[in-house]
Amino acid sequence: MSENTPRNKLSPAGWLTLAILFAFLGVSLWYAIKVWTAMSGVQMSGFGWTFLVLGVVVTIGLGAGLMALVFYSARHDMDR
Question: Rounded mean pLDDT of 42-54?
Protein backbone atom coordinates (compact mmCIF):
# COMPACT_ATOMS: atom_id res chain seq x y z
CA MET A 1 0.00 0.00 0.00
CA SER A 2 1.47 3.36 -0.96
CA GLU A 3 1.65 6.29 1.42
CA ASN A 4 -0.90 8.34 -0.55
CA THR A 5 -3.64 5.71 -0.33
CA PRO A 6 -6.05 6.20 2.62
CA ARG A 7 -6.40 3.03 4.66
CA ASN A 8 -9.71 3.69 6.41
CA LYS A 9 -11.93 4.77 3.53
CA LEU A 10 -15.59 3.83 3.94
CA SER A 11 -17.34 1.87 1.25
CA PRO A 12 -20.77 2.96 -0.04
CA ALA A 13 -22.35 0.36 2.27
CA GLY A 14 -20.51 1.94 5.21
CA TRP A 15 -21.81 5.40 4.32
CA LEU A 16 -25.33 4.00 3.93
CA THR A 17 -25.07 2.36 7.35
CA LEU A 18 -23.92 5.63 8.92
CA ALA A 19 -26.78 7.51 7.25
CA ILE A 20 -29.33 4.99 8.54
CA LEU A 21 -27.89 5.12 12.06
CA PHE A 22 -27.97 8.93 12.09
CA ALA A 23 -31.57 8.79 10.85
CA PHE A 24 -32.45 6.45 13.73
CA LEU A 25 -30.72 8.84 16.14
CA GLY A 26 -32.69 11.79 14.76
CA VAL A 27 -36.03 9.98 14.97
CA SER A 28 -35.33 8.79 18.52
CA LEU A 29 -34.36 12.32 19.63
CA TRP A 30 -37.49 13.75 17.99
CA TYR A 31 -39.66 11.15 19.76
CA ALA A 32 -37.95 11.71 23.12
CA ILE A 33 -38.52 15.48 22.88
CA LYS A 34 -42.14 14.93 21.82
CA VAL A 35 -42.84 12.63 24.79
CA TRP A 36 -40.94 14.90 27.22
CA THR A 37 -42.99 17.94 26.27
CA ALA A 38 -46.27 15.98 26.29
CA MET A 39 -45.65 14.98 29.92
CA SER A 40 -44.89 18.49 31.18
CA GLY A 41 -47.92 18.56 33.49
CA VAL A 42 -47.32 15.15 35.10
CA GLN A 43 -46.21 15.15 38.73
CA MET A 44 -44.17 12.33 40.27
CA SER A 45 -44.43 11.35 43.93
CA GLY A 46 -41.54 10.81 46.32
CA PHE A 47 -41.75 7.05 45.74
CA GLY A 48 -41.44 7.63 42.00
CA TRP A 49 -38.29 9.73 42.41
CA THR A 50 -36.85 7.20 44.88
CA PHE A 51 -37.33 4.27 42.55
CA LEU A 52 -36.10 6.29 39.57
CA VAL A 53 -32.85 7.05 41.42
CA LEU A 54 -32.56 3.43 42.59
CA GLY A 55 -33.04 2.21 39.02
CA VAL A 56 -30.31 4.50 37.74
CA VAL A 57 -27.90 3.51 40.53
CA VAL A 58 -28.54 -0.22 40.06
CA THR A 59 -28.17 0.06 36.28
CA ILE A 60 -24.86 1.95 36.54
CA GLY A 61 -23.63 -0.48 39.22
CA LEU A 62 -24.54 -3.48 37.10
CA GLY A 63 -22.81 -2.02 34.06
CA ALA A 64 -19.69 -1.15 36.06
CA GLY A 65 -19.63 -4.61 37.65
CA LEU A 66 -19.94 -6.38 34.32
CA MET A 67 -17.20 -4.22 32.80
CA ALA A 68 -14.98 -4.98 35.80
CA LEU A 69 -15.55 -8.70 35.20
CA VAL A 70 -14.64 -8.29 31.53
CA PHE A 71 -11.38 -6.54 32.41
CA TYR A 72 -10.62 -9.05 35.19
CA SER A 73 -11.16 -12.06 32.94
CA ALA A 74 -9.09 -10.50 30.14
CA ARG A 75 -6.26 -9.62 32.53
CA HIS A 76 -6.16 -13.13 34.01
CA ASP A 77 -6.45 -14.82 30.59
CA MET A 78 -9.77 -16.50 31.37
CA ASP A 79 -11.52 -15.65 28.11
CA ARG A 80 -10.08 -18.18 25.72
Answer: 95
